[in-house]
Amino acid sequence: MRRLMTGYAVTFNKRHKRSGHLFQNRYKSIVCEEDPYLLELIRYIHLNPLRASLVKNLKELDKYPWTGNSAILGRRRNPLIPYKPPDSGKRSDDTKNKSAIPNPKSEMSLAERTTQDVLLHFGDTIKAARRRYRQFIKNGIDQGTRPEFQGGGLVRSAEGNKAGLLGRKKEEREKGDERILGSGDFVTEALQKAGQSYESRPGDRVPLETLADTVSKAFGVSAEQLKSGSRRRIIVQARSVLAWLAVRIHGYKGIEIAEALSLSSPTVSRIIEKGEIIIDNNSELAVDLKLKQV
User: Fold this and answer.
1) Domain-located, residue 263
2) How many domains does the chain have?
3) Do the domain assignments include residue 107?
4) Is residue 228 part of a domain?
5) Burial letters for 43-71: b for 16+ Cβ neighbours within 10 Å, e otherwise?
6) Is 149 domain-assigned?
7) How far is Cα 121 from Cα 129, in angstroms, rounded to an integer?
8) Are 289 and 254 in contact (CB under 8 A)?
9) Residue 100: beta bridge partners?
10) Any idea what the CATH number is for the domain that residue 214 is in?
């Protein structure tokens, strides 16, 4: 996705004789727990054009072509679904609307399966499911912006809006990660499977200087050398591990690491990937660093 967005931005800038960033933020994907978080997230995303005044009302949103909402409602054909010419020997579209929603099958395209997965949450027939789905979307108009869905996680930060968490268990209100949307247990399980820990809030994070000291001791180099720009292999490896440790484990942003190490943001992204490979291939180093994190 990064390559796609970068390539598009370069092409767009050349075509329009401009320079600089084209997209405000980097592409972000989050892990989402089904029922009810997936449906809430779908509703939040599909109402974005209305909140941004790209459409005037729900009726216009029904036909808006740039989200999956119109395809789910059957108002526009999804371009990702291969076109199938009507067969005179089969039932009409009106009859199909009253038929049961078939379970997703392997021969269906991903777009077809995704649409059916959503509709199956709202009814057993296409007509009823679409009617209930639209009412579900309509009910979300008055909810406004919802910080808990903008970045993922049940609690984005100590200052985040927790209104949507009222009534939940204490442990669920307190556990959250910006990369994951779901219950506290789901967040914990997802992070354990990924071998990562919770993203820390700025006030809770281990200082970057402490992380640099930890990594420098593990590699036998000085903390100053990590920031020196040296291309020595051992220092490059240590710098990569520091970037990975800071961003992936302790929740620092790439731009913070770039400033601390006097690197560009793209370079930080590359060395994070290298740091992960180094950690994966060096179990002793991984154990050493994890022991020092506690």
Assistant:
1) yes
2) 1
3) no
4) yes
5) bbebbebbeeeebeeeeebbebeebbbbb
6) no
7) 8
8) no
9) 125
10) 1.10.1750.10
